[in-house]
Design goal:
Blueprint: E1 2-6, H1 11-18, H2 20-28, E2 33-41, H3 53-70, E3 74-82, H4 84-95, E4 99-105, H5 117-125, E5 130-135, E6 152-156, H6 161-168, H7 170-173, E7 179-186, H8 199-211, E8 216-223, H9 226-237, E9 241-245, H10 259-267, E10 271-275
Parallel strand pairs: 1-2, 1-4, 2-3, 4-5, 6-7, 6-9, 7-8, 9-10
Antiparallel strand pairs: 5-10
Helix pairs in contact: 4-5, 9-10
Protein name: Universal stress protein
Pfam family, one: Usp
InterPro entries: Rossmann-like_a/b/a_fold (IPR014729), Universal_stress_UspA (IPR006015), UspA (IPR006016)
């Protein structure tokens, strides 16, 4: 299983790469080949006086390559030029990656939880499952917020086809997952389900599948704004990662995140894994 690990060589990226627990989690779900990617922005030119960005990046990324190799992965590095999210996405698609991992800071100085432009653009356009790995923001020596990436999962579903695809990732996440909380939020604005549908019964069926893999599972049906309610559950159960399909019901959102998914990526306390629809 191949994974792309995107880095801008910042202290936050270093925290993701050098955290042994994160690497162990990736190995546990079947990742054995890691592609380490850093992108030199198009507006940075090799001929700029006194600066050789490409050489500096190659020297820095070689240190990360050793860390990943020592952890037992086959590793390949890519130092490329262009628009970061487009080049990262292109490499993931070219190598047939099963997962893309990108680090993202937590709270902004304005107390508004945001993600960086690269993570946001990847979330909106990726055709590969994307793990937004949350990093401490206000720290000189930042650390990952949730070290055990897949130990306690919060899976949010609207029972759409894409939500079902997100659930399918438990087929490999289960090797690192011990607990799971399954959540559906009923909302009058977009009910999405037939009147005779039993959300609790459908969640119970999914829970039975996870229990068969020895994953301790609980279910919860809520009413209200989906993003708000899912984040309330996050506060209550403290998952290591929220798992969600990356687009909602609308067929017009083929290149955009559904509003719920975008809210979760921007506002969640911890990691968020987005699974895009089949293309």
């Amino acid at each position: 299983m191949k994974a792309v690990l995107a880095t801008d060589l910042s202290a936050a990226s270093e925290a993701t790469i050098e955290n042994e627990t994160c690497l162990e989690c990736l190995g546990r779900i079947g990742v054995d080949e890691m592609h380490l990617v850093t992108v030199i922005p198009s507006n940075v030119h090799a001929g700029m006086p006194g600066i050789d960005f490409e050489k500096r990046r190659r020297n820095a990324i070689s240190n990360y390559e050793r860390v990943i190799g020592d952890a037992g992965f086959d590793v390949e590095t890519h130092v490329v030029r262009g628009t970061p999210h487009r080049r990262i996405r292109g490499i993931a698609e070219t190598i047939g990656a099963s997962l893309t991992v990108v680090g993202s800071r937590g709270k902004s100085p304005l107390e508004n939880r945001v993600i960086g432009s690269t993570a946001r653009n990847l979330a909106r356009t990726t055709e590969t499952p994307l793990l937004v790995n949350r990093i401490e923001r206000e720290a000189d020596d930042p650390a990952v917020v949730r070290q055990h990436l897949f130990q306690r999962m919060l899976y949010a579903t609207d029972f759409s086809e894409n939500a079902e695809r997100a659930f399918e990732t438990f087929s490999y996440l289960r090797h690192a997952t011990q607990e799971a909380t399954l959540v559906h939020v009923e909302t009058p604005k977009d009910p999405g389900l037939a009147e005779d549908t039993d959300p609790e019964g459908r969640l119970a069926e999914l829970a039975d599948q996870l229990e068969a893999w020895d994953i301790e599972t609980r279910i919860e049906v809520r009413q209200g704004d989906p993003a708000d309610e899912i984040l309330a559950v996050e506060d209550a159960v403290d998952p290591t990662t929220i798992l969600v399909g990356s687009r909602g019901h609308s067929r017009l959102r083929r290149l955009l995140l559904g509003s719920v998914s975008e809210d979760l990526v921007a506002r969640a306390n911890g990691n968020v894994m987005l699974v895009p629809p089949r293309m």
